Amino acid sequence: MSNTPPPLETLSALEVRPRRPWLASSIRLWGVFFILCFGLGYPTLNRYDPRKALPDSASYARLATDGPGKVEGYFRFRILTPYLVRPLYLLAKGRVRSWDALLFGFLLVNSFFVASTAILLFRIGYAQLGNYSVSLVGALLYLLNFTTPNAQLAGLVDAAEGFFLMAVVVCLFLEKWWLLPVAGILGALAKESFVPFSVTIAATWWFSSERFRTHRLSAGFWIACMATLQFVTVTVLQSSILGRLTWPWSFVRGLDSHANHLMVFAASLVDKDSWYILIWLLPLGLLRIRQFPHPWIRASAAASFLGLLLNAYHTLPGVAGGVGRCIFSVAGPLLSLSTAAYLCETTPGSQTQTPSGGPGARPHSARDRLLV
Questions:
Q1: Each residue of 33-69: pLDDT tens digit?
Q2: How far apart are CA 326 and CA 337, in angstroms?
Q3: What is the pLDDT of residues 270-293, one digit of tens each?
């Protein structure tokens, strides 16, 4: 009888290797994420009413039921989520017993967007790290962040903005330039802040990526197309709702709070509501962030700084939470994956799973692993 001890179980040995096509496994995992999101947002159905706790939520609810003509301020222009909610609300009305039918519609739509963001995050994480378990931890950390149940799943429109920002990252990662305008238009319909964030992310990625040098003109063309179509979308949307020609710069001037912008900027750095979101995500995420693509890091940093500036421009003193939500929308996926890599002590390519072709198969590149 051999005295050789059994092999130790490693993290890679415990991982579940994909045996089905990537699309089937992604759909299955997306379904799990969707159910988790529905559970996280369940308290809005009959535990508390976010329309009473969050004035923004009340405006979006009115937009879903009564249309933009009954909504004041810039909330009326954020039509994508409320318009998706409306048919679900009409179908659920009188059929969901003690649940609030309107909030049920919001929860379904927002759960769809958050689960979709998580699955894209998971695929990007595996493409970069080559490790399913760590990528899954990153996606779960994203779902369990403070802002997910308290903002993205609480009758607001942040979930749609976060999803389309992640979609922009995937387009840049895969170099699918022609998809940028599609994500740009839909994101502009979700929330107007998506426009400067997406353009900043794409432009920063374009300038800082060495891989883009061989396709500099084509990539720049599609990024310019995205920005142009977003400009047209915002102009047409706001003009049609207001009944007069409205240029985006007029809208931007109207957002000026006329407060002391420097004081608001300084106050946002110590805003407790924002630190509920960032208290663990930011410090842990920064510890391993250098192992991710530098263009993604620079793009997220540039968009986060832009969020600080925009918050200082339009926020009144004493209004809390805006900066944390902005940073989470633009950098939350990257920070979540980086935090997972730190907690699991993983480096890029370590413990990479054996490709489906067998031990002798050619290792997948990061882009290939995105579709494994």
A1: 999 999 999 999 989 999 998 889 999 999 999 999 9
A2: 18
A3: 888 899 999 999 999 999 999 999
Tokens of 69: 């003509």
Task: Give Cβ neighbours of residue 210 (< 8 Å, ≥ 6 apart).
Answer: none
Q: What is the DSSP string of 201-255?
A: HHHHHHHH-SGGGGGHHHHHHHHHHHHHHHHHHHHHHHHHHHTS---HHHHHHHT
Both structure tokens of 119 = 């699955």
Nearest in space to 129 (alpha carbons), one of 292, 288, 13: 292
Contacts by 362-365, CB closer than 8 A, 24 or more apart: 364/130
Query: Residue 123 and residue 230: Cα distance in Å, rounded?
Result: 27
pTM for the whole thing? Answer: 0.88
By three-state DSSP, how is residue 62 classified? helix
Domain boundaries, the chain: 23-348
Measure Cα distances from 13 to 8, 183, 351 in Å. 9, 38, 9
